Amino acid sequence: MKRVTTVLLAVLLTALLATPAAASSEKSSVGLGVSLGVSFPEGDTLDEEQVDDWAASFNWGFYVNIPLIYTFHLTPMAELYKFGDKNATDIALGFKFIIPAWVLDLYVAFVPGLTTVGEITAPHVGGAVGCAFNLFSNLDLFIEGKYKVMFNLDEDTNISVLHANMGILYHF
């Protein structure tokens, strides 16, 4: 009798410990994502290096998806790419508005942040559109297009960059 009670208690304790883990893989949980894509920068770099307009370069990045409510997420992100011969890094905070549509989550986002090209750092502002599709219970596939403008505070030149990315998002 004592052995049966011990086994039942162990099974009950295991079930109780497993329940929160199963419930935390919802879309309302924080997610971590990685993306790959292509960037198309246009204009002069902030230190006057001219690049071919809209010359393609490989980019990659990672981000965190923090849902405040189901249809509004904060998304800190970092992307790395080339601007001519120089490395560029974007650090931004996306304000993402989700539009649930059948099996897709369409979204639009306002994306302010900072961009570093070589030795120069400048603010940028932009927007993004995309959609996410749930592959498994806690894994999403997404496609995103983002356009941003970097501001040179010392001169009257601006730089535009178009990003096209695809990636995955893991929900904890």
Structure, briefly:
With 172 residues, the protein is mainly beta. It has one helix and eight strands. The longest helix has 22 residues, at 2-23.
Overview features:
172 residues, mainly beta, 8-stranded antiparallel beta barrel, 8 strands, 13% helix
Report on this model:
The chain is mainly beta and 172 residues long. The chain has a single domain, classed as Porin (Beta Barrel), CATH 2.40.160. The protein is built from one helix and eight strands, in the order αββββββββ. The protein has an eight-stranded antiparallel β-barrel. About 13% of the residues have low confidence.
Decide which structural class fits the backbone: mainly beta
Chain oligomer state? single chain
Name given to the CATH architecture: Beta Barrel
Rg over CA atoms, rounded to whole Å, is 21 Å
Number of helices: 1
Largest sheet: 8 strands, antiparallel, barrel
Strand element count: 8
Q: SSE string, helix = H, strand = E?
A: HEEEEEEEE
Q: How would you describe the shape?
A: elongated
**Low-confidence runs of at least 5 consecutive residues:** 4-26
Q: Mind telling me the CATH class?
A: Mainly Beta
The strands making up the biggest β-sheet line up spatially as 1-2-3-4-5-6-7-8
Global mean pLDDT: 82
- Tell me roughly what share of residues is in helical segments: 10-25%
CATH topology: Porin
Estimate the strand proportion.
over 45%
Number of folding domains?
1
What is the straight-line distance between the termini?
40 Å
